[in-house]
Amino acid sequence: MALLKKILIANRGEIALRILRACQELGIKTVAVHSTCDSELMHVRLADESICIGPAPSKQSYMNIPALLTAADITGADAIHPGFGFLAENEDFASVVQQHGITFIGPDPEHISMMGDKINAKKTMESLGVPTIPGSSKELFSDDEILEEAKKVGFPLIIKATAGGGGKGMKLARTEEEVIEAYHMAKSEARANFDNDRVYMERYLQNPRHIEIQVLADHHGNAVHLGERDCSLQRRHQKLFEEAPSPGVSEAQRNQLGNLVAEATRKMGYKGVGTFEFLYENGEFFFMEMNTRIQVEHPVTEMVTGIDLIKEQIKVASGQKLSFTQDQIVLKGHAIECRVNAEDPENFFPSPGKIVRYHAPGGLGVRVDSHLYAGYTVPPHYDSMVAKLIVYADDRQQCLMRLKRALKEYVIDGIKTTIPLHQKLVDNKEIKDGQYTIHWLEKNLDNLD
Ligand code: ADP
Question: What is the CATH number of domain 134-203?
């Protein structure tokens, strides 16, 4: 089956550049779209064509569906790649793109909508034999009902928005006294952020790791898993540092969980790339949610499998069969990714501005996915992530040493970044030993030196 011919990249920054690179290596033409403040983005310069789609606020540009469709129409693009964030998990966008005879590089809208509702996603997984975090998704109206249900779930518990994302809309309740207020707060936060106030309760795990499994499926009923990523190092439920394989997961566990989710992917008839997120505690995995798009941390999986996930995404969207079986996927070595954010590493305040000096690290096993260059101005309107430093080596210890030297080489002057924080992390004994859970970073942030 022939590949798609011209892809419109409905995104910006490093992921837009990442998609453009994959397209160019596949011989596919590219269309960059950008807001008025983004004309100097690296991928806009490198794309075959570019179109301005609106003003800086993303609602009026990167999330402006009529503008994106018009841009695809004018340029004759036969596909749209949404990247992550913006419209990547918007089922209305996926279906309207398809209705216009354009290929949406992602799963079917039904799967986006099924997984976009986390209560629904958990129920689907339970029906497919995948274990989920114990909890309750009953609609609760009175304070008595809330208390009653909370006691059944047990304390501590967490209240989450069914339409949640980006770590927002979660409230912890440690005791019966806290739960009613937490419930109402979660509901109003969910309404304000996601326009949907349905919430659910889950047992709050005290010491889990965040483990996620990457899957890939074609349109012909084939699905494989590509092992796990450990994304436990988080601040405010946002990932900062990811690695593959996880220092806490054995080969037998990987194979068992991986095969279970690959089977679930097949049974659902899911297509494209996807990630099943789990919390892992005391030898047990509990499903949390599924992301129906490419993830920020996909490069660590690419490094240990040698598989280019964006190219595979484009190939399966073109209708091609997977060119490898589960047995042919071999995990080798170790990879770590550090998210470099334009933020003050002390207080995490955003730090947009002009890059006056830029030098990216290099050498064997070092990959930098970034749109930065000297003279570029990081605008204040978007996500603060400006680069991903990904390091690969034969084993975890060598990988950490390589990461340490790559971080030392990295120069980004003019703005503040999270590089100094990563430098402290690689020198930390518990990180070196792989002994960390999702709460580790917040507990240790103030005494990392
Ligand atoms: P989002 O879609 O907003 O990222 P997730 O459901 O993926 O929300 O949760 C994000 C993070 O929040 C998890 O990686 C974990 O650190 C924390 N978290 C979520 N649910 C629980 C839970 N039941 N117990 C403990 N921590 C949790």
Answer: 3.30.1490.20
- Expressed in angstroms, the distance from the first to the final Cα of the chain is 55
Torsion 147-148-151-157 (CA) sign? negative
Identify whether 402 is a catalytic site residue.
no
Answer whether residue 410 shows pLDDT above 80: yes
Predicted confidence at residue 141, as pLDDT, reads: 86
Give the architecture-level CATH label for domain 209-447. 2-Layer Sandwich (3.30)
CA 299, distance to chain mean position in Å, is 11
Q: CB of 97 within 8 A of CB of 81?
A: no
The fold adopted by the segment(s) 6-87 is: Rossmann fold (3.40.50)
CA-CA distances (angstroms) from residue 210 to 154, 178, 281, 346, 388?
A: 21, 26, 9, 24, 19
Pocket test for ligand 1, best of 275, 279, 285, 441 (most atoms within 8 A of CB): 279
Single pTM value for the model: 0.97
Determine the distance separating the centroid of ligand 1 and the alpha carbon of 210, expressed in angstroms: 8
For 66-118, the pLDDT digits (tens) are: 999 999 999 999 999 999 999 999 999 999 999 999 999 999 999 999 999 99
Helix axis angle, 13-26 to 309-317, nearest 10° = 60
